[in-house]
Specification:
mainly alpha, globular
């Protein structure tokens, strides 16, 4: 029965008011059409505005994504042969620090970017698990990881950390850092850097994050 909090109504009503196809196109192709550089989030709100007539639907989506993320974490940790994987997933699901991301509709960007981040991480870990697989399988897993990573940074730019995490996992599991692995991750780094610079520009010029209060 929760309603809108803080700026939820702004984000939700913005998508509801602009139902034309041109708005959906502008989300992806016109910098400045939205306040922040999260085209996947604004697209999701646009879709949800056509599905739900009350805040309950938006809250249900956040809860579902958070539950899915907890399951993905447990499955990923099992893939990485870590002990107590499901206990860690449960702790992630129930930890109080998650409340803001789940209960605040506007923080869809946290739960959705995490969802795509974990899918990208799982796809790449599986790709790395095959040292000499058939070409099509190698390409499918690598392409899936890149696609999910792109969706993650389109949901929240902080997901740009993924390629660095993948390098660390490679170092941890294999005990070495091969040059060809770094080369394979160059497209990931390029996308992350590009979205990072675009986000900084939009935060300064569209959001107004400048001046003494924002120097840090």
């Amino acid at each position: 029965k929760a309603g809108f909090v803080w700026d939820d109504d702004f984000f939700v009503m913005q998508g509801t008011a602009k139902t034309q196809g041109a708005y959906l196109r502008d989300i992806w192709l016109k910098p400045g059409a939205t306040a922040q550089c999260y085209p996947m989030i604004y697209t999701a709100f646009w879709i949800e505005s056509h599905l739900w007539s009350s805040p309950a639907g938006y809250h249900a989506v956040n809860v579902f994504l958070h539950a899915a993320n907890a399951v993905l974490i447990a499955l990923l940790f099992e893939e990485l042969a870590l002990s107590m994987a499901w206990l860690i997933g449960i702790c992630f699901a129930l930890h109080p620090i998650q409340v803001e991301s789940v209960a605040w509709i506007s923080e869809l960007k946290n739960v959705l970017s995490t969802f795509f981040y974990l899918l990208a991480l799982a796809a790449y870990v599986q790709h790395e698990a095959f040292d000499d697989p058939p070409a099509w399988r190698w390409n499918v897993r690598y392409a899936a990881a890149f696609f999910f990573f792109f969706c993650a940074v389109c949901s929240k730019t902080v997901a740009c950390s993924l390629p660095a995490v993948l390098l660390l996992i490679r170092w941890w599991k294999k005990g070495r850092m091969d040059n060809y692995v770094a080369v394979k991750l160059l497209p990931f780094f390029a996308v992350g850097l590009g979205f990072g610079l675009l986000t900084i520009r939009m935060e300064i010029h569209a959001v107004g994050a400048s001046g003494a209060a924002w120097e840090m």
